[in-house]
Amino acid sequence: MVLSRLLTAASDQLPERQRARLNERPTLGMFVSIAQASGIEFDVPFERLRYLTKSRNDAVHRGQAASSWNTADLVQTAIDFIGAHGTYKRTGEQEPDGSEWVLAQSDDDLTEAQEPEFQ
What we know:
By secondary structure, this protein is mainly alpha-helical.
């Protein structure tokens, strides 16, 4: 959800092809691909985001649970990403697209390290 919000908020800065992909109901893997193809740099390396995506897909689609060590690493990746790129809170009922999650801080309160950089 954090990645979705960051890309949606920055959609006017994305290349046309990547901006169009946002309208295709992107999956987590697509969001990671869109960000990388757009030259966005996050505080969490794309390798870790791709590993998170692969592990999520293995669990959901193939019933393959990550080991305890890998799970801890995956949780740390999520914590690192969310911690670096904004603090979110739930505002209401759960929505399929995660739209009940909003920034808990104003944009003015976010530091440069929390905002993605475009190359």
